[in-house]
Amino acid sequence: TSTKSGQTAEYSAPVALGTQINREDWHQGNVSITADGQTMYFTRVEMENNYVKQSKIFYATKGSDGWGAANEVTGVNGDYIAKHPCEGELFGEKVLFFVANIPGGQGGYDIYYASKKSDGAFNLPVNLGSVVNTKGDEASPFYQDGKLYFSSNGFPSLGGLDVFESQWNGSV
Q1: Which residues have a Cβ under 8 Å from the Cβ of 133 and sit 6 or more positions away?
Q2: Is the pTM of this model over 0.85?
Q3: What is the dihedral of CA 76, 77, 81, 86, to 10 degrees?
Q4: What's the whole-number average pLDDT of the chain?
């Protein structure tokens, strides 16, 4: 039970999504759902000896019977760890924000975006640069109303992964 403004909301017990999303021996997580509620992005991680062996971004679309099959997103996955997907908007177009340790970045895990070409297909990743990314790690981008919220341990802060916000000013 949750209360807000004097109202009470009731939630049902959680139910695991089926095998079309959840795959045995993999960890599914970092879920984000598009504003229209029709596309779910998530990370699928394979672990080996408690270390991330590989991590890729997948998506599923919602139909009349619920969520469809998981499909690997094209354009953003590679020979690196990709995680924490979230759809947003830049230059008036849909983009996918995500975190990756692509060689040549600012350091550690950086936030990237990729312009949407079609369902599940994106252009090559673009690093958000040194205004957002640091020599440390950035994580968990979340986009809403023109603002990008994210965590970082690379800015002077209270310590650990603190939450920051950045608003795009319309320039490259």
Answers
A1: 105, 106, 107, 110, 111, 127, 154
A2: yes
A3: 40
A4: 90
